[in-house]
Prior knowledge:
With 136 residues, this protein is of the alpha/beta class. The chain has one domain: Rossmann fold (3-Layer(aba) Sandwich). The protein has helices at residues 2-6, 49-54, 62-68, 70-77, 90-94, 116-134, and strands spanning 11-14, 33-36, 56-59, 88-89, 108-111. Helix 3 (62-68) packs across helix 4. The N and C termini lie far apart (50 Å). One of its GO terms (cellular component) is cytoplasm. InterPro entries: NAD(P)-bd_dom_sf (IPR036291), ODC_Mu_crystall (IPR003462), ODC_N (IPR023401).
Amino acid sequence: xxxxxxxxxxxxxxxxxxxxxxxxxxxxxxxxxxxxxxxxxxxxxxxxxxxxxxxxxxxxxxxxxxxxxxxxxxxxxxxxxxxxxxxxxxxxxxxxxxxxxxxxxxxxxxxxxxxxxxxxxxxxxxxxxxxxxxxx
Length: 136
């Protein structure tokens, strides 16, 4: 059972098309990190409300996360989460405008709905690595 595994790992990664939450907040423990990189539509969810309520939430993009992600939109609609509760997006983290995890006990969630900038950054990294290693 997935519930038995959740509390035993440091990092939980979900990349599903689930409409039913798979990460259940009551099984989380302090210090865990949860990556929610699937469930990119408003009617999809990988984490339940308790997971979101117990966690510091980070987004790849405010614009996309606040409009397209059921993991974020549904908890906002039902009052579990406020927009102001979201700690930062990738731009703010990467430019050090905001900080990430504040302590080792904090549970963190990163919600990505897919951002072209992430794909471009990965492609640029591997292209440069290829050029450097091949001596071109």
